[in-house]
Write the structure tokens for this entry.
Amino acid sequence: LKAPRQDFPLTVHTSFLRISEGVTGVVGLVRGEAADLPTREEDGRKVTDVVVVTSAQAEGGEDAGWTEQPVRAEVQEDGSFLASFGIALPPGKYALKAGAVLGEGPTGSMVSEAIEVPDFSKVETAADGTTTKVPTVASILFVRDIQEAKGDEPDPTDAFAAFRLGSAQLIPFGAREFLQSDTVSFFYLVYDLGTKPGTEEGDATIAFSILKNGRTPVAQAPPNPVNTAMAASSIGPVPLGAYAPGNYVVQLRVTDNITKKSVVQNEKFTIVDPEGGAE
């Protein structure tokens, strides 16, 4: 991290979830393309040993946190590897560095990008000074599969340890570019929905749609009623073969009937034709 290098192509994708009041989890994936990786078979998957490192620097230049974790990174069919990371940060703007180190040599690469960590603990203050929590939505996660997690605690060396949420182990996609042959599930988390006075009962609906070029609806799911203050669920699996190559937006619209608030979360993705790319 102090002496960045680029021994092989590396990309990073970040998403955001709430960890606790005032603290956001930056969960991400690094995807590397390194030739002649030493691999082995584990649980039917091809893996390689990688040390994933991250650091975050606040706008003022001070260090806000760092991580270093050896993982068993999953090797994809094209020879690339995919591994996750997680770092907890207060809301704000940061310069995030993410890297991967391979072997004893070592061989390594690092990428840096500017991120804005959202606040998932928003409140509104009324004229009388009382405060009300505002509903928020985490990043929509694009996943291959949702499995029952093994063990009481996550294995930190697992390639996708950062994507374990309670008893659910998410198996994420490493990019937002898909083939028509792919099947995707969309996992979402909603926080701080209103509840009826004196109870923990909520009254909200969650609507899901896919928009071509961010404008034209091409798929819509029936509104999902929610009667709790927090919601965690998924839409799918959605086979992408029914959609033409091009640019899309998956949209989640939350309507809270108690607080009379609405919140919309959009995530862009692309479907490509292996012969001709996106339309």
